[in-house]
Write a sequence for this structure.
């Protein structure tokens, strides 16, 4: 009995190759690590003795006593208030949003990106992947749960996977060794094979011819047929 080999001679990356066998396989994705897009500012408090007369940016009155200096403007301390909660900003740091000033707690609660993994605000390093934002320690493999960092990853059903777990869970299996097929493959005898595993039943040498014989549903090379 003679059979034909359907051989993929061009080496491809695993997701592309496996999509030949399993159409739901996806491509390699790249996670983009970046610092939080939120800029934080600092203000200083001076006295009129140090800074001289000043006009409050909020009420336009002369400031007597302490002066808040921020964004190249001056304010009464009680008028340098968060645009969201309307409370005077406590501490020395704040954010800007839509041209106004926002205290750090309000910015985290209302304007910071939310982690897709835990739902909490991201106030430091953020990873952009799969169209959403993540804390770096929450962007983990769906299999082994290790952090994926900012490198490449695979996606399956909307979840990220490292290459090892992706291959173990979703790659086609070789009919001979049962290990995942992640590079070149042979499709023959209604199965998939590593090129090195598609061997003659008798001499155990790789079958490389375009045609071969079959014995007990295993290939035979031309010499052993």
């Amino acid at each position: 009995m003679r059979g034909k080999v359907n051989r993929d001679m061009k080496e491809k990356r695993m997701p592309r190759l496996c999509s030949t066998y399993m159409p739901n396989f996806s491509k390699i994705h790249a996670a983009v690590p970046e610092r939080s897009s939120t800029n934080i500012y600092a203000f200083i408090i001076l006295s009129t003795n140090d800074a001289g007369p000043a006009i409050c940016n909020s009420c336009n009155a002369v400031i007597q006593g302490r002066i808040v200096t921020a964004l190249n403007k001056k304010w009464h301390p009680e008028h340098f208030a968060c645009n969201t909660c309307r409370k005077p900003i406590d501490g020395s740091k704040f954010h800007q949003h839509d041209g106004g000033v926002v205290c750090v707690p309000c910015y985290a609660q209302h304007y910071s990106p939310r982690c897709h993994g835990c739902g909490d605000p991201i106030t430091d390093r953020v990873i952009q992947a799969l169209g959403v934002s993540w804390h770096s320690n929450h962007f983990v493999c769906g299999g082994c749960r290790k952090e994926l960092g900012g490198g490449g990853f695979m996606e399956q059903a909307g979840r990220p996977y490292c290459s090892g777990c992706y291959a173990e869970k979703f790659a086609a299996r070789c009919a001979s060794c049962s290990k995942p097929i992640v590079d070149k493959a042979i499709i023959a005898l209604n199965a998939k094979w590593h090129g090195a595993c598609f061997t003659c039943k008798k001499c155990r040498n790789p079958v490389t011819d375009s045609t071969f014989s079959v014995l007990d549903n295993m290939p035979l090379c031309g010499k052993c047929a």
Summary: Confidence is low (pLDDT under 50) at residues 4-26. Residues 32 and 128 are 5 Å apart (CA to CA). The domain at 40-110 is CATH 2.10.110.10 (Cysteine Rich Protein).
